[in-house]
Design brief:
The protein contains 19 helices and 15 strands. It is α/β, with parallel strands linked by helices. It folds into three domains: 121 residues, Glutaredoxin; 90 residues, Glutaredoxin (3-Layer(aba) Sandwich); 233 residues, Four Helix Bundle (Hemerythrin (Met), subunit A) (Up-down Bundle). A hairpin with a 6-residue loop joins strand 8 and strand 9. Its cofactor is FAD.
């Protein structure tokens, strides 16, 4: 009888322990998806990519992105708008996305050589994997035209087997009469300037679903028969093809609306602007709450940043050649000056030692080295949880914030131990060569173009150089209209007045006493806040965790006491 009671007691304790542990520690892995499949952008993964894309019924435009990349976050609504514009021709082309920030998608991102993000690739419908997809520039003013051009080029090669497609090729003079006889009251888009060549194919694509409209475009035409002054123009032929009527030569983006009205075609979809320019509605200014002042260097941010750097940024390349591996080695050596836990530092030391044996390496082998050195005394937590770098929404802050924290911690940790200027150079080389965000890497390279001239001669100079660069970046981002900045964490000059009033020369201006700032930076980035046991959805919750822990402990104690008194 007593054995049964003891067994029951153990069961209750075991049942309660997960709940107790859950109250103490809530790690949340960040894997933000930037697109909603319900809105027309399909989410692809390595597990279904081949099945969906290869030898498909549809052509496909795929955006490869990193969820942590600020440029990708800004680009996501543009790509969504692109998908919306093309719904009238969704029987020809679909829009999809691949999150390269999901480590499961690493094979597919490596296969297509995704080095920078966002990257747009066009896969034609009979893509087999033997050829290369078409790289599409991601600029708002060129994407639509490039997609139309890719479809037109594919049609030109395969037109005999694409009887259900509209004719995307320009109509020639000697074809005009026969085409008109087949399709009385044909609509013609006339272009002249080479830069207007996107207009015709886009107008034709917009008319795919209009059963009673036959739309073609012309570039070289008979000026005696087709008389008009402006380009581009929309014309309509009469029933016996002897005359043409000018419908419009003004608002080119209204051409398809005019055609739709003429053939009584109704749709709720947008027509793609045939000038190729994607128009984004002004975003509503978010309500800015009280700025949350970062309260120090969080262990959780540093370790999450390190995991992302090693497993997702450096490892995303297929192969590290001599140059890129040397940059990775130097950066890993610099990381050893960050005040990580001893287990993390041991892990970095073992990686550093093992990589010294290689002059080049595949990233598969690089990842194997990382995995092999994970054990009880040497490890990096394989999860991404933000503490001080958590944003008011998942798409804000995160990795870029943690990377800056890591950079500053490196320079402070290297004081009186190594050449801090070299640490800053290693930081620059890492960002330029491995940071996957295209625009971010380009901007950082511009910001540090004067590094060798301006970094100074002392370690203190190097620390302050990086601090000034960071403030320059913050100033630039604060002025960018489309900058994705957390409204609860506005881009201010650091340190703020609340953190270090003594650092400023003038309370009303962003001018600093650099000697005081240097001392502040040593304090701020020299001491780590350990919050592994108090992370709740990316925020420090020590008090809440303590209260919940005490509550569970008391309940469990009562249960144990009741059982013991009845034994």
């Amino acid at each position: 009888m007593e054995d049964r009671r003891i067994f029951s007691l153990l069961n209750i304790i075991l049942f309660c322990m997960p709940a107790l542990n859950a109250r103490i520690h809530h790690p949340v892995t960040v894997d933000t998806v930037l697109f909603d499949p319900k809105k027309g952008v399909e989410i692809l993964e390595a597990s279904n990519f081949t099945e969906v894309v290869f030898n498909s019924k549809f052509n496909r435009v795929v955006v490869f992105y990193q969820a942590t990349c600020g440029t990708c976050k800004k680009f996501a609504p543009v790509f969504q708008k692109l998908s919306d514009y093309c719904k009238e021709w969704d029987q020809l082309v679909k829009f999809s996305s691949v999150a390269c920030s999901n480590i499961k998608n690493k094979p597919i991102c490596q296969r297509f050589g995704i080095v920078r993000v966002p990257t747009l690739l066009f896969f034609h419908k009979d893509f087999s994997g033997k050829e290369k997809p078409i790289d599409i520039q991601s600029g708002k003013d060129v994407m639509l035209g490039n997609i139309a051009r890719s479809l037109a080029n594919y049609y030109q090669r395969k037109q005999d087997s694409l009887s259900d497609w509209p004719n995307l090729l320009p109509l020639k003079n000697d074809e005009f009469r026969n085409e008109c006889k087949k399709h009385p009251k044909m609509f013609i888009i006339i272009t002249n300037d080479q830069s207007e060549k996107r207009v015709g194919p886009l107008a034709v694509l917009n008319s795919v679903k209009m059963k009673n409209a036959h739309v073609r475009w012309m570039h070289d035409y008979d000026a005696q028969f087709l008389k008009f002054e402006n380009h581009p123009s929309l014309l309509q032929t009469n029933t016996d093809c002897t005359e043409t009527t000018l419908l419009s030569s003004k608002q080119r983006n209204d051409f398809n609306k005019l055609i739709a009205d003429k053939v009584d075609y109704k749709t709720d979809n947008l027509f793609a602007p045939i000038d190729g320019k994607i128009i984004m509605e002004p975003s509503k200014k978010p309500v800015i709450g009280k700025p949350i002042i970062p309260n120090g260097l969080h262990e959780q941010d540093l370790e999450s940043s390190l995991y992302h750097t090693l497993w997702q940024e450096i490892s995303r390349l297929k192969h590290l050649n001599a140059s890129s591996l040397n940059i990775a080695k130097r950066y890993i050596k610099s990381l050893m000056y960050v005040p990580y836990r001893k287990q993390v530092l041991k892990f970095l030391g073992e990686i550093d030692s093992e990589l010294s044996e290689y002059s080049t390496i595949s990233t598969d082998h690089f990842t194997q080295i990382l995995e092999k050195n994970l054990h009880s005394k040497s490890y990096v937590p394989k999860r991404i949880v933000w503490a001080g770098c958590s944003g008011s929404k998942p798409e804000f802050r995160g990795y870029p914030c943690s990377l800056w924290m890591t950079f500053h911690a490196m320079t402070i940790g290297g004081l009186n131990k190594t050449d801090v200027a070299q640490i800053v150079r290693n930081i620059r080389d890492y960002v330029v060569n491995f940071f996957s965000c295209t625009k971010c890497a380009q901007n950082f390279e511009k910001e540090t173009a004067d590094l060798d001239k301006s970094i100074g001669k002392t370690d203190k100079d190097a620390v302050l150089y990086l601090w000034r660069i960071h403030n320059h970046v913050n100033e630039r981002l604060s002025k960018e209209k489309d900058s994705l900045v957390d409204p609860r964490h506005p881009k201010l000059q650091f340190p703020g007045k609340t953190l270090c009033k003594e650092c400023r020369i003038d309370d009303n201006a962003d001018t600093f006493k650099e000697d005081v700032v240097f001392n502040f930076l040593q304090d701020f980035y020299g001491e780590v806040i350990s919050n592994r046991a108090s992370i709740n959805y990316g925020k420090a919750t020590n008090n809440k965790a303590s209260f919940n822990t005490a509550w569970f402990t008391n309940i469990l104690g009562v249960i144990v006491l009741l059982f013991l008194t009845n034994l």
